[in-house]
Amino acid sequence: MKVIALKKWAEKVGEEEHKVSTADLVNTIMNLATQQENLKGFENVRKMNRIGSALDAAEKNGRLAFLDEDYDLIKGFVEKYTPANWGRNKEIMDALESIMNATKEKD
Fold first, then answer.
1. What are the beta bridge partners of residue 70?
2. Residue 93: how many CA atoms within 13 Å on its side-chain side?
3. I want to staple 81 with a disulfide (CB 3.0 to 4.6 A). Which of 33, 34, 88, 102 is the partner?
C-alpha cells in the first residue's frame, strides 16, 4: 500500500477563495487522464472504484492510501497528464511531489 499525506491550501479564483487538497489534484488528473486513455474493462472499473473510495476517505483519514497497482496507475497519470503550468504554484508542486514520493506501508 502507498500512502500520501493529505495537503490542503487555499487558492484564490477571482475574488473567491477555494480550499484545495492533494485529493482534489489526484481527482483532477484522473479526470484529465481518463478522457485521453479511454480505459475500459471490469478490472479498470474496480480500480476506479477503489481510487474513488480512497479519495472520499482522504478528508476523514488525513491521508490518501492506495493499493500499489492503483498508485502505479495514478503515478503514471501524474507523470503524463499534469499540466506543466501547475509547476508555477508552490502548493501544487509540493502536493505533486508528495504524490510522486508516496511512502510504502504494509497492507
1. none
2. 7
3. 33
CB count in 10 Å sphere of residue 73: 20
Written as one letter, the residue type at 107 is D
Tell me how far apart the alpha carbons of residues 48 and 102 are, in angstroms, rounded to a whole number. 19
d(CA 45, CA 79): 21
pLDDT digits (tens, 9 = 90+) for 49-104: 999 999 999 989 999 999 999 999 999 999 999 999 999 999 999 999 999 999 99
Q: Please state the rounded mean pLDDT for residues 16-20.
A: 92
Q: Are 102 and 2 in contact (CB under 8 A)?
A: yes
Find cell 501544487 and name the residue. 92
62-66: long-range contacts at Cβ-Cβ below 8 A with a sequence spacing of 24 or more?
62/5, 62/6, 63/3, 63/4, 63/5, 63/6, 64/3, 64/4, 64/6, 64/22, 64/23, 64/26, 64/102, 65/1, 65/2, 65/3, 65/4, 65/105, 66/1, 66/2, 66/3, 66/4, 66/102
Length of the chain: 107
